[in-house]
Amino acid sequence: MSKDPNRPNIVLILADNLGWGELGCYGGGALRGASTPRIDNFATEGLLLHNFNVESDCVPTRSALMTGRHPIRTGCLQSVPAGFPQGLTLWEKTLPECLREEGYATAHHGKWHLGDIPGRYPSDRGFDEWFGIPRTTDESQFTSAIGFDAEVAELPYIMQGTAGQPSTEVCVYDLEKRRLIDEMLVEKSKNWLSRKASAKAPFFLYHPLVHLHFPTLPHPDFERSTGNGEFADSMVEMDFRVGQLLDHIDDIGVRENTVVIFASDNGPEFRPPYRGTAGPWSGTYHTAMEGSLRVPFIIRWPGKVPQNVTSNEMVHITDIFTTAIAIAGATKPKDRPIDGIDQVRFFQSPTVEKSEREGFLFYLKDDLRAIKWRHWKLHLIWEPKVNQSSGKLESPYLFNTLRDPKEEGDILAYNTWVLQPMMKLRAAFQKSLAEDPARIKPMT
């Protein structure tokens, strides 16, 4: 394990479709029928962000995290079925690839969703080893679906692999394994962390949970534990699994030199009965509403990040790529535009420093849907709920997210000055996009 403060270990835990309003420390917890004491306590040990932003879907967010680049650059625009080209091209350089160059050991245990063919599995993209699912968890319903035909549709598998070797199938991913998988993933991560604790090299563990993605089904040990249904039971299990990882970090003696980040990849699910909540924000994932963009984020870095602090400063998922590289003393790619901003200074002094991010453009697939700048939000296409788009707006809608968190009252007519900085932001990004080597000459 690394004891060098200039090369801290990094553990990144990513929940799946955990809405802003679910956890107790974000105003949910018991109000949602499921207390989350472990994550709530973890939030008091570091910095909690209220304005941490992600992309629209599982694949776009994970690609942005792994590359520091918006998915409109990388082509990772949406989740697609098995058997279709998907994931990161070999030209994109990933976070674990950058960290490995600095001597970090790397592991991935969980949901990948950035490539499901040889050459694009996690162990091909910078991770020393991996265990989990290559795509998404709703595929666990396949084998019990009426009329499912394995001759025309691919079976979903839990897989594993090590760098330099082909990834292999472990078992079919069905509804039984859906209930067990987060337990399996935690055991894999605990085992790996124990092995790395006796080594001298620093480590990077990426642990993307399966909870709370639909079907949101709890482990049998947690079934009926809340009396409030399977979603609440799954929330309690997720909190417990995060606690297991935090306890193990303590048990192996690496807490003081380990940065732990907990976040979510997307806003809440919109499909009943697994529908989640974004708290004070409107919308779910697959929209450009704040409920899609804003998700939980907590960082603990003993002695570096102050305890029990919250902030409404803006941070984006691409920033985690750049920030993790800075924490590790690694080098980010210089041959392509990187959208992520180094937030180390802000994270270390959140009551004094401001985030260096003032805004970003939000695309949903190929469409520029919205622009965020400071506390202002401009919608170019209006879709407050999934599949309820009114199309491109001749006169865009403008909201102030401080005064109008649910984005209910358009105030563009009284604040047209805001278009100036927003259009400058758009022009600069689109110029960069036009000059991006990955788009001028796509790399395989």
Automatic annotation (TrEMBL):
Family indicated by similarity: Belongs to the sulfatase family.
Name by which UniProt lists this protein: Sulfatase N-terminal domain-containing protein
Pfam family, one: Sulfatase
Keyword Hydrolase: yes
Record bears the keyword Signal: yes
Domain Sulfatase N-terminal: 8-329
Alphabetical keyword list: Calcium, Hydrolase, Metal-binding, Signal
Gene3D superfamilies assigned: 3.30.1120.10, Alkaline Phosphatase, subunit A
Cofactor needs: Ca(2+)
SUPFAM superfamilies: Alkaline phosphatase-like
UniProt-listed InterPro entries: Alkaline_phosphatase_core_sf, Sulfatase, Sulfatase_N
Taxonomic path: Eukaryota, Fungi, Dikarya, Ascomycota, Pezizomycotina
GO molecular function: arylsulfatase activity; metal ion binding
